[in-house]
């Protein structure tokens, strides 16, 4: 059965999301590679190229919904020894996988924090940059999360968000729809024994605002110089916004 997602109260929506990532935490990284054909790596690398963390001055970075640390590691590898990354996620299981993956490689340049994107446990203007990658669509109240992103950024700070988008190339859209509705849940069942979390995933992609609508939400939260770049025929969009 499908989650009747639009009728689910917001707090229950978060509970559903938490169940999904609790179930898949240990296999999350394998699933990511399988389902995107490895493309998620290229998308994340494009985000980090766009961010260009400085190599020779302090840089405080916050990666929200950071899960198993994939984005954080890339930011740390691209930055210098004064680059510090805080990985925040609502799900302790995902963070545990991230801690295991990090090992002692980055020392105290990486910190894992359990918390909610809608109520960040940080002071105002603490961070130079904020990223959220394939995470914002899971947050029940996106406007709250964007207000929090704005609050914790310094003036001149930047938000980058990578999220699934809407394929609008004729022909490709039908293939993508068939792929996401059939292949993704099937692969999910093969690897984790359960297709349901992946039906939820596909459904949440379908419901996420268009890049234009999401850009408006960023502006409403106070961000300026808002722009986005579609990638891979619009399968994903990279959004950029500044706190000026
Ligand atoms: N950013 C990682 C990546 O791209 O590999 C993980 C993305 S994963 C699809 C989505 C993550 O969002 C999960 O780890 C989940 O626990 C987290 N999440 C869901 N709701 C959240 C919330 N309200 N606050 C913080 N994190 C949340």
Automatic annotation (TrEMBL):
Keyword S-adenosyl-L-methionine in annotation: yes
EC annotation from Swiss-Prot or TrEMBL: 2.1.1.163, 2.1.1.201
Group of enzyme by EC: transferase
InterPro entries in the record: SAM-dependent_MTases_sf, UbiE/COQ5_MeTrFase, UbiE/COQ5_MeTrFase_CS
Residues that hold S-adenosyl-L-methionine according to the record: 68, 89, 116-117
UniProt keywords, alphabetically: Menaquinone biosynthesis, Methyltransferase, S-adenosyl-L-methionine, Transferase, Ubiquinone biosynthesis
One example of a Gene Ontology biological process annotation: methylation
A Pfam match: Ubie_methyltran
Its biological purpose: Methyltransferase required for the conversion of demethylmenaquinol (DMKH2) to menaquinol (MKH2) and the conversion of 2-polyprenyl-6-methoxy-1,4-benzoquinol (DDMQH2) to 2-polyprenyl-3-methyl-6-methoxy-1,4-benzoquinol (DMQH2).
Protein name as catalogued: Ubiquinone/menaquinone biosynthesis C-methyltransferase UbiE
Organism: Chelatococcus asaccharovorans
Gene: ubiE
């Amino acid at each position: 059965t499908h989650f009747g997602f639009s009728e689910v109260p917001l707090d229950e929506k978060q509970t559903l999301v938490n169940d999904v990532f609790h179930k898949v935490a240990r296999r999350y990284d394998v699933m990511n590679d399988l389902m995107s054909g490895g493309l998620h790596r290229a998308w994340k690398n494009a985000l980090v190229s766009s961010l260009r963390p400085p190599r020779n001055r302090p840089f405080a970075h916050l990666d929200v919904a950071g899960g198993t640390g994939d984005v954080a590691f890339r930011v740390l590898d691209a930055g210098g020894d004064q680059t510090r990354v805080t990985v925040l996620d609502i799900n302790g299981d995902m963070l545990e996988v991230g801690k295991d993956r990090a090992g002692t490689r980055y020392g105290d340049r990486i910190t894992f924090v359990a918390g909610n994107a809608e109520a960040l446990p940080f002071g105002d203007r603490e961070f130079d940059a904020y990223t959220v990658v394939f995470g914002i669509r899971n947050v029940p109240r996106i406007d709250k999360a964007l207000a929090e992103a704005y609050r914790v950024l310094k003036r001149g700070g930047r938000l980058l968000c990578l999220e699934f988008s809407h394929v609008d190339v004729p022909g490709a859209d039908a293939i993508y729809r068939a792929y996401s509705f059939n292949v993704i849940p099937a692969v999910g069942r093969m690897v984790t024994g359960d297709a349901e979390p992946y039906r939820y995933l596909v459904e949440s992609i379908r419901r996420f605002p268009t890049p234009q609508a999401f850009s408006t939400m960023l502006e409403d939260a106070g961000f300026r110089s808002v722009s986005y770049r579609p990638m891979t025929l619009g399968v994903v969009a990279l959004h950029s916004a500044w706190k000026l």
